[in-house]
TrEMBL record:
Superkingdom of the source species: Bacteria
Origin species: Octadecabacter dasysiphoniae
Helicase ATP-binding domain location: 15-178
Segments crossing the lipid bilayer: none
Region annotation (Disordered) ranges: 778-804
Residue intervals of the Helicase C-terminal domain: 201-369
Gene (name only): hrpB
PANTHER family: ATP-DEPENDENT RNA HELICASE HRPB
Keyword line: ATP-binding, Helicase, Hydrolase, Nucleotide-binding
Alphabetized GO MF terms: helicase activity
Xref: Gene3D superfamilies: 1.20.120.1080, P-loop containing nucleotide triphosphate hydrolases (3.40.50.300)
Parts forming coiled coils: none
Record flagged with keyword ATP-binding: yes
Name of the protein in its database record: ATP-dependent helicase HrpB
Organism classification: Bacteria, Pseudomonadati, Pseudomonadota, Alphaproteobacteria, Rhodobacterales
SUPFAM superfamilies reported in the protein's UniProt record: P-loop containing nucleoside triphosphate hydrolases
Length: 804
């Protein structure tokens, strides 16, 4: 007799909804039994015509679900229940339920859009919102709408906000109440101090949990590194009957099974990644220790690189994790954060489609022939655009349409980069493709991928080998080699350059091993790495830092090989650029692959217009240095512009914005900072005004004042009033104060020794007031010059008195 599970209470409602609507959304908390009960209930109902396909997010979950379903039927896997994943298929002619990884459904749909012989598709654990699940759901919805209205669709989830999914699918929501047993949450009394190491804090919490509880303990950690560090810290800290088992995706399958299976005696402590959040039943777990962190991939469209970040879990993930403690009995969930921090956790993790590399998705959409799929979360336009640009560079798309080469890439179980490498590089590229698809097979080794290739070929190495990963790579390499064409053998670095044309790296000048990638981004390498001194690399892996990525995998490549593999991408360009460092325009002829410069020579006969255009950047850098005459002209225009607003704006800001219009035609041979310093911009400024405007300026704000002697004195317009400076004797006989632009002219009188003696804006008033005091003072100092008692009756002069 089967154990009673919470999901059993809603199975009749679920079968009824499927029979009536052909679709449903099932929301069931962890431990409810949806994975093990629902497919068999649909099969027994007899309403499904054809096979039932159930998607699981991970390979381990696929095997586990298939085995539990088959066990309930008293059969072996491969009979009524089978499974299918990349590189492994266990089905037969009698199979009615297939448990598959999420990417398998996409391949099935692209090969047969009608999904012939399939009666139902179940999306299990959809709350994880993987990219493949989102794409698979969008494709399935379009198939139901256009080709297969009879296709049954069921979306199952533990913590998903079901409303939006139900609206998208057009399905009722069936909810299973509660988990099988209550779970008692235990938070920290206060937030974890910043100076406490994460692995030490988790280890201490595990020791505490083991001392306060009974039963198996499931610990959630972000990744393999944290698992190994916590495992090391637990050595000697736990009771002798405790057995510590790691569980992560790259662990060999037999070790994964050991972590899931019950122990014969004592207690089991499972240190797991998020792989244990859903789909897996880990026997006898009554305690959960949640480190409160999750590791996610983030793709930066600007750099074209992904990186893994570790961040706080969401409330949905914490609920999933805690629920694992209540599957077999009342449980306890220890959380490495305070109760106050719990309320600040975000509600749900981001959908993978919002943060992932979308190159594979873009290729699938091109193969499908439509962008208008009904996605629950539409892919970001920027990331999707970058993905399509890369596919164009790989020859998979042409004008947005898929090419025959693109169709070939879509059939391969690889990222489009590696699929392109395999199709162009042939069977010899299979090993490298498998290596770059799998986790690093060497621990603590330098960045050189060549070391991994030698280890793959069986060579001895001084570095620790991940034997499980090595076995997987070798098996995958054999499988890929069967799919690859026979082509001429090429070096691994050429294969890598085919996959990563945007990551061919050139070492920058200087002692530090810093590189610029052909895609435009910067990268850095450990100075002690043997590849650090290489002039060129092909970068296969980085930490994804958007500022300057750290190189974790690379192959050295020669310039000759770069030219051979990227001949059609090398541009020959003529450049005129302002060099801030040199203070001059640099005219160069270069060969460039993206952002890297393969050759650089002086451009001896660069056109004058190109030099002048580049010099505009120099002007922006150096700023304006106008002559006194040019400054006076700008001041005159500004004065008149206050009453005639259609005159051009000659302020620094306005002139800087319009350099190309007014300055470029006048720069001539100016191409250095010193030449710009001596450049007279007055003709260029005057060129901004037409004849009529110049007449207006000359009339209302003349450049000079004509003295009674007929001399031209420049008018200074830079102050709050126009001003002239001249010797006092030159204004003898003046009885009316001079006016400019409707305003009194400020007059500064000079002594015969050219020293200022008086400033006035009322010359007639000066004659009748202050002049007498000035005359008394100046007559003694300059007796040879005229100082008449009545200056209004004297003739203007610049001469001394004639000798008697």
């Amino acid at each position: 007799m089967q154990d009673v599970l919470p999901i059993d209470d809603v199975l009749d409602d679920l079968i009824g909804a499927v029979a009536a609507r052909g679709c449903a959304v099932l929301q069931a908390p962890p431990g409810a039994g949806k994975t093990t009960r629902v497919p068999l209930a649909l099969l027994r109902a007899g309403t499904i015509q054809g096979r039932i396909i159930m998607l699981e997010p991970r390979r381990l979950a696929v095997r586990g679900a298939a085995e539990r379903l088959a066990q309930q039927l008293g059969e072996d896997v491969g009979q009524t229940v089978g499974y299918r994943m990349r590189g492994e298929t266990t089905v037969s002619g009698a199979t009615r339920i297939e448990v598959v990884t999420e990417g398998i459904l996409t391949r099935m749909i692209q090969s047969d859009p009608e999904l012939s012989g399939i009666g139902a598709v179940i999306f299990d654990e959809f709350h994880e919102r993987s990219l493949n699940a989102d794409l698979g759901l969008a494709l399935t919805l379009e198939i139901r709408d256009a080709l297969r209205p009879d296709l049954v669709l069921l979306v199952m989830s533990a913590t998903l906000d079901a409303g939006p999914v139900a609206e998208l699918v057009g399905a009722p929501v069936i909810t299973s109440q509660g988990r099988a047993f209550p779970v008692d949450p235990k938070w920290l009394d206060r937030p974890l101090r910043k100076d406490v190491r994460f692995d030490a804090a988790v280890a201490d919490l595990i020791v505490r949990a083991a001392g306060e509880t009974t039963g198996g303990v499931l610990v959630f950690l972000p990744g393999e590194g944290e698992i190994r560090r916590v495992q090391a810290r637990l050595d000697g800290q736990l009771p002798a009957d405790c057995c510590v088992r790691p569980l992560f995706g790259a662990l060999p399958f037999k070790d994964q099974r050991a972590a899931i299976a019950p122990v014969d005696r004592g207690r089991k402590i499972v240190l797991a990644t998020s792989i244990a959040e859903t789909s897996l039943t880990i026997e006898d777990v009554r305690v959960v220790v949640d480190g409160g962190r999750a590791r996610r991939a983030r793709f930066d469209p600007g750099s074209g690189m992904s990186r893994l970040i570790t961040e706080r879990v969401t409330r949905a993930e914490a609920t999933q994790r805690a629920g694992r403690a209540g599957r077999v009995a009342e449980g306890v969930a220890y959380k490495l954060w305070s109760r106050g921090e719990d309320g600040a956790l975000p509600a749900f993790p981001p959908a993978e489609i919002e943060a992932a590399d979308l190159t594979g998705l873009a290729l699938e959409l091109a193969l499908w022939g439509s962008d208008g799929l009904p996605f629950l979360t539409p892919p970001p336009d920027g990331t999707l655009g970058e993905a399509r640009a890369l596919l164009g560079a790989l020859g998979a798309l042409d004008g947005g349409r898929i090419t025959p080469h693109g169709r070939a890439l879509a059939k391969l179980p690889l990222h489009p980069r590696l699929a392109h490498m395999l199709m162009r590089g042939g069977k010899k590229a299979a090993g490298l493709a498998a290596l770059l698809s799998e986790r690093d097979i060497l621990r603590g080794a330098p960045a050189d991928v060549g070391l991994r290739l030698k280890a793959l070929d069986g060579a001895r190495t001084a570095h620790e080998v991940d034997k499980g990963a090595l076995a997987r790579v070798r098996a995958e390499a054999k499988r890929l080699a069967k799919m690859a064409p026979d082509t001429a053998s090429q070096a691994p670095e050429i294969h890598a350059a085919l996959a990563y044309p945007d990551r061919i790296a050139q070492r920058r000048a200087g002692d530090a091993p810093r590189f610029v990638l052909s895609g435009g981004k910067g990268a850095v390498m450990d100075a002690a790495d043997p590849l650090a001194g290489q002039p060129y690399l092909v970068v296969t892996d980085t930490d994804g830092n958007p500022r300057e990525a750290k190189i974790r995998g690379a192959l050295a490549i020669s310039e000759t090989d770069i030219r051979a593999v990227a001949a059609d991408q090398i541009d020959r360009v003529n450049l005129c650029l302002w060099s801030k460092r040199d203070g001059r325009v640099m005219a160069r002829q270069q060969e460039k692959l993206g952002a890297i410069v393969l050759s650089d020579a002086r451009w001896a006969d660069a056109p004058q217009i190109d030099i002048a255009t580049a010099m505009l950047d120099g002007v922006r850098d150096l700023g304006f240095k106008f002559s006194a005459a040019a400054e006076r002209f700008r001041a005159r225009v500004a004065l008149v512009r206050a009453v005639v607003p259609d005159l051009p704006d000659l302020t620094d800001a306005a002139l800087m914005e319009t350099l190309h219009t007014w300055l470029l035609p006048h720069l001539g041979a100016v191409q250095t900072a010193s030449q710009w310093k001596g450049f007279d911009a007055l003709p260029a400024l005057r060129g901004l005004l037409d004849w009529s405007q110049m007449q207006t300026v000359d009339t209302q704000a003349p450049s000079h004042f004509t003295t009674p002697l007929g001399h031209q004195k420049p008018i200074d317009y830079s102050g709050d009033a126009p001003e002239i400076t001249l010797r006092l004797q030159e204004m003898f006989g003046t009885t009316r104060h001079p006016i400019v632009a409707g305003r009194p002219l400020r007059v500064t009188f000079l002594s015969p020794g050219q020293k200022p003696i008086q400033t006035t804006m009322d010359v007639p008033g000066f004659w009748t007031s202050s002049y007498s005091d000035v005359r008394k003072d100046m007559r003694g100092r300059y007796p040879k010059h005229p100082w008449p008692e009545d200056p209004t009756q004297a003739d203007p002069t610049v001469r001394a008195k004639p000798r008697k």
